[in-house]
Amino acid sequence: MEPPVLPTDLIAVLEAELTAEEAPFLAHLGRELALEWLEADSDRLGNTRFEMNHNELFKRRRLRGSPGPITIGLHPMLADDDALFRHTLVHELLHAAGLLEHTPRHSKLADEIAPPPTLSNSPALRALREQVLGQSNQKEWTCGNCGFEWKRKTVRKPSRCPKCAHVF
User: Domain check: are 91 and 39 in the same one?
Assistant: First the structure.
């Protein structure tokens, strides 16, 4: 399988949205970044890997030096889901640019630059939901108030009983 292709507009969008202070590695992405597919059995949609250890990485971040080679790995299931591919790639590019922590700013930027797809618009998210539900031991929900039982269709626990509206 050919390695994933970086959409040309994403780096320009990141440069417009980020400051050199918060993203010191952004200027180095053009020559240091490589994309690859993760293994099909990976439990992550994406990850960012820096070749140097975290002490050296934080030192270079503080001094605004080159981060060295950076590899972003993306799950192969994203190849068939453009919106989730783009959202995951932006998330990982933010890490590669120097936003190393999952902060509210990181989440907000990822959501603004490449909005996450809805469950109904994402074949990959639907497949993940089916996988999680298939592996779950709990196949149905039972209301402790009225005893009503219904088939489990969501990953999240329901907040109320659909029959008596009692808090679950």
Answer: yes
Number of residues written out for the chain? 168
Using a CB cutoff of 8 Å and minimum separation of 24, what contacts does 107-114 make? 109/17, 109/18, 111/87, 112/17, 113/10, 113/13, 113/14, 113/17, 114/10, 114/83, 114/86, 114/87, 114/89, 114/90
The count of domains in the chain is: 2
Residue ranges making up the domain that contains 141: 137-168
Q: Where are the alpha helices (DSSP H) in 98-144?
A: 104-113, 123-135
17 CB-contact burial (10 Å; exposed 0-12 / middle 13-18 / buried 19+): middle
Task: Please give the sequence-ordered ranges of beta strands (E in DSSP) within 24-151, or none if there are none.
Answer: 33-37, 46-50, 70-74, 140-142, 149-151
Closest CA to 33 of 99, 96, 110, 100: 96
User: What would the two tokens of residue 62 be?
Assistant: 């503080």
In this structure, are 145 and 95 located in the same domain?
A: no
Token match 């971040």: residue? 61
At 62, which amino acid appears? R
pTM: 0.83
- Block residue for tokens 């918060």: 22
Q: Tell me the per-residue pLDDT of 23-73, one tens digit each, with 9 for 90 and over.
A: 999 999 988 999 999 999 998 999 999 999 989 988 998 888 899 999 999
Residues 105, 145 within the same domain:
no
